[in-house]
Structures are given as C-alpha cells and as structure tokens.
Task: structure prediction
Amino acid sequence: MKESGLWLGLRNAPKKPILDEVAPPLMQFYLLLSGFGFLVAFSVLPLLTGYCAASYGRSFWVWFMLGWVLPILSFLVLFTLIARRYLDQGERLLEEAKEILAAAEAAEVRH
Result:
C-alpha cells in the first residue's frame, strides 16, 4: 500500500505548498476589506439617527454616539420623540406660530 501512486504523490510533494506563501497576504486583505465593509454598513444607522436628530434641533453628535452604542434602540427612541412632537396638537400650533412670526419679521425688515 505504501507504494501506491497516492502515497508516492504525497511523499514527493514540496515541503511548503505554494498556497501558503500567497494565502496570508490575501487573507489579510480580505479581513481588512471585510472589516471596512462592516464599519461602513454599521455606520449607516448612526449617521441616519444623527441626521434625523440634527434636522429636528437635537444634537447630531449625541445621537450619533447613541447610534453606535445602541443602534436600533436609539433610532426607535428618536422616532418616538419626533412622532410625539408631530402628534401633539400644541407642538404643531407652536411651530405654525413660529413660522408666522418669522414671516412677519422678515416682511417688517424689508419695509
């Protein structure tokens, strides 16, 4: 059995396969690329949370960091705060009054 072609093929094989010389740099590149892809994909929700917070007068950086620490929960909390603001009749009337006053001041400054 030791004289079979399979045994002789393994015995006469080079000590260090060629793939071992090529695999570590490729593996490092793959891990680096995978890590970068993970960071980009994982940054979408914190960026979205921070942008939404900033567009409604809240701190971008606070909500961005909350988005990194608690990605799904921070987005849901921000969504709840924004929805509560729009569902509250008093808040909507206050926003309308602010817009009317700003338009009146702009018209007064022009004249």
Summary: The chain has a mean pLDDT of 79. The first helix runs from residue 5 to 11. Helices lie at 5-11, 18-55, 60-69, 71-87, 89-110.
